[in-house]
Amino acid sequence: MNNPKEELVLATMFCQHYQIEYSFISSLEESGLVELIIVNDQQFIPSGQLQQLEKIIRLHQELDINIYGLEVIVHMLQRMEQMQQELSVLKSRLSFYEE
Q1: Over the stretch 36-46, which tens digit does the pLDDT of each residue have?
Q2: b/e map of 57-83 (b: 16 or more CB within 10 Å)?
């Protein structure tokens, strides 16, 4: 899943920057919303997950959505993105046959 050359962000530094408790990140990992990588007994967040994690934090802080609600929202957004990709493929196939 992770690119071996992908940059890693120290989880505790990320928490300090966003003023969140480390327990929140830990809860996200337990629910499968974020993957932490352990290197030398320290936990890191792959840089490829930062944008998604920032979205989750905003939902949690601004809308006061709990972990279970975040799980539902993230899975629904992922499903919508998948459906949009499928729709795009179908449209391109249809345009091929219309020509």
Answers
A1: 999 999 999 99
A2: beebeeeebeeeebbebbeeeeeeeee
